[in-house]
Amino acid sequence: MRIGLSGGGATIDRVVEQAVEAEADGFSALWYSGAASADPLLPIAFAGRATTTIELGTSVVQTYPVHPLQMAQRALAVADALGRPGFTLGVGPSHAPVIEGMYGYPYDNAGRHTEEYVTVLAALLRGEAVDFDGDDIHAHRGASPAPAIAVPLLVSALAPRLLRVAGEHADGTILWMGNARAIASHVAPRIRAAAAAAGRPAPRIVVGLPIAVHDDIDEARTVAAAQFAIYGSLPNYQRILAHGGADSPAAAAIVGDEAAVTAQIEALFEAGGTDFWAAPFPVGGDRAASRSRTRALLQHLATV
Questions:
Q1: Number of domains in the chain
Q2: Integer Cα distance of 248 and 210 in angstroms
Q3: Is the pTM here over 0.85, yes or no?
Q4: Residue 254 domain-assigned?
């Protein structure tokens, strides 16, 4: 199984240490948040120089604050800094409270904005000429040599329009709060059909969910309800949760003992997921022991 973890840390040294440890433990990837308060690209560049095989990706960088020309330049610079394949760029439009409330950009046409953005960005990452005037995005640049190190592009596609866009233009989607039912009934059929219609390879479906290996399921869901409550208030996540028949982020979280959690992870792959991005959270009085138990199972699944 391709199993990755949430990446990041308080310092660059910790980010590098974490990446080295994850690679040594057999994890396939680390996924770094692109929150408004932190830029993941510089830490990824440092971590990539200290590792040799692990994939380092963004989950995700927000589109609105960065023009696609600049986004492509930054992404290709990170790939060059790594000096090897392994950097994957995940992008997405974020949410109205961030884009309108923090940045002051209108969010009324997020789907249109993201479709135009990804159309331009995907071409730029391939070194193609761009002469594009859309409703939201304008970009003009001549062709450049094909990048020495390709940068795969993923889109945080949760709704039908962006699943089509991800299939047509990108290498797949990176999800958050989409469970196995949502993947099987909503995500996989749409993105695969779009990729096939565009003559593109089968897309990646990177599934991100909170996870805790813990014997008391009720206790674990209570902790998840408190820690991940914000996602239940955002319309984009409300819709993907509804597709999965989950009434809250806590209901979508993967929790239970080793056997139950293993079965839930296997179900993600059976539903069409290609990668699992695990976001462990601690439960109980001994937080370190809780994290260690969850990581031990994830490591076992990543290396069998």
A1: 1
A2: 12
A3: yes
A4: no
